[in-house]
Amino acid sequence: MLAREVISMASSLEALANMTSESLKMQSAEMVALRTVAMQNRLALDYILSAQGGTCAVIGTECCT
């Protein structure tokens, strides 16, 4: 009886480990996509700001430099 409980617990733990592994893989893929979108947004913003004379030209007196 104890052996069956140990086997059942081991099976449950293995299933949990597999689900955790799959979840981490999906999160990793989502993070890659998020980084890509963030970089695309940054490039677009840099392009727009440079076309208007740079960050300080757009912000004016509130510029940090």
TrEMBL record:
Keywords: Disulfide bond. It holds the Pfam family TLV_coat. SUPFAM superfamilies: Virus ectodomain (SSF58069). This is ERVV2 protein. It comes from Esox lucius.
